[in-house]
Every structure is written in structure tokens, then in C-alpha cells.
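Posting this for the archive.
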Amino acid sequence: MKLSGVFPVLCTPFGDDGAVAPDQFDRVIDFVLRSGAGGCVFPGVASEVDTLSADERGLLVARLGARLQGRIPFIVGASDPDPDAVLTHIERGARAGAAVAMVIAQGAIGHDLNAQLAYFEQIGADSPLPLMLQNQPVPIGAGLKADDMATLARAVPAIRYVKEETLPCGQNLTLIREACGDAIEGVFGGAGGRYVIDELARGGLGTMPASEFADLHVRMVGAWQRGDRDEARRLYEVSLPALTFQAVFRMHMTKETLRRRGVLATTHVRGKGPKMDAGDRAELAALLQRLSPEFQNDPLAEATREEQETII
């Protein structure tokens, strides 16, 4: 089965004490299912994966597979600087029912193509799952060029997909498709869904945004796929201010939005980055209030309107 459509990256809910909250994780999964997503991804950068222990990571991957019960495919995030650790993550994902394993071209290896090739050859030789090569900008990723990714894809048959996140995303997606040809199934966009229309117009298979607007993204991509380009662009245009806001506050915005939408009870973030103050929360309330008519899932809490009117 060829993957396509919207594959939200699931956040990792934490309780107010900072511990993983598995019951809330179930609610995020259910929200994505109700949204009609083509699949989902866990863990990824938007999951605060760098803050999770191996045991936490394994527990939640197993829980995801058990909760989904094969209703939609999931991509297991398996990135790690150590190829042996990558394979451990992939094997856990395979046992949970994952369809594909996503692995970042490591920023520490950089543009040393021979070293990247050795890394992916070791992983690909023993992986029980097909691979998705995630091309992230430095410093997390290597920010590889299209020709280098094509070299990797042709040398490592296990690489079947690319997730492209380097700027300009649309141009790079075109270059990757041209360079890789039939060596891969296709390319997904990332970068929070901020360039999704350009990516779809260039033949992208779909998008992998954060999960707070899963239902809206499903409507947007669905409109594009059935040929209603005007509706797809309209939904893109109305959502873009909120996605721009998310680019600054990242997991803080994602979790607060999911709380306002009735999905999460707590919004603790382990990861680094700017936190929202009262003014930012008021701006988020205003953004979500304008977006609320487009949501197909879980109406916004009444607090959204109240905060918008009383703060600032």
C-alpha cells in the first residue's frame, strides 16, 4: 500500500508532574482517527522525542499500535545517531504494527555522503520495515541536497519514501522527485504544513504536520486530491496565521490548542523553546475563534471566547 494524505505527528502528553500521560495519548490518537487522517507518525520532533527515554518511547509506540488496531497505517520515528539504536526502535515499531520507519539523515554526519551511506546501509540491511528518509535542516538534520538523497535511495533499497523539510520546500520536493525517480514511492512535506499547497502542486504525496489541526488538514488535502483547488487554497489561507503562530511556540501552541479543543487535560512541555504569556494566549484564542467554523472535531472550549474578550 502506497502511503498518502495527512499523517499528523502525534504529540506526547505529559501530566503536570512532567510524567508521560498514556491515557491522554489515547485521546490524541482517537482525535486523529476521528479526523479521518490517512495515517500518523510517532515519535517525531513534534513529539518531543529528544526528551523521551527509551522505555517511554517503546511504551507509547506499543500503545499506539494497540490503539490503532490497523485502522490506519503509522510511521514509527526511529531516528538516533547510533544505527543499532535505530534498529531497536524499528523492531519495536514493527512489533506494534508500523508500516514504515522514519529516520533522519543525521546532522552530526552532515554532507559526508560516504558516512551517510554507511549509516543507512547498516540500517537498511537489517530493517524489518521500509524506510522514510527524513531530510531536516541543520543542526538536527543534515539538510542533504536532492542528488545526495537520490544516491542514498538508489544504494539502499529499503528507502522507499522521503520527508522533505528544507527550504524552499516546494522547489526541493521537485528536485528530489526528479533525482530519485522510481527509486522511491514519493515525497511527503513537513515543516508544520506551512507550505503544503506548494508541495501538493508539485506532486507531494501528502503532509506531516503537528496534530492540533488534523481535521482541517484532512479537509484541505482531500479538497486538493478531488480537484477542488479553490477550497484547498481557502482552507490553507485561513489556517496559515495559526500555523505561523505555531512556528514560534511549537509544542506549547500544539498542546494548548488540543486542550482548548477538548483533547488534552494538561499542557506540560519538556522541550525547549519560548513559552506563551498572557498576550500570546489571547492571540491564540482569537486565531482559534476565527478557525473554529472550519473544525469538524471537538468544538473549542467556551474559555476560548472568554479569554479573547478579557485578556488585553
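The mean pLDDT is 94. The chain has one domain: 5-231.
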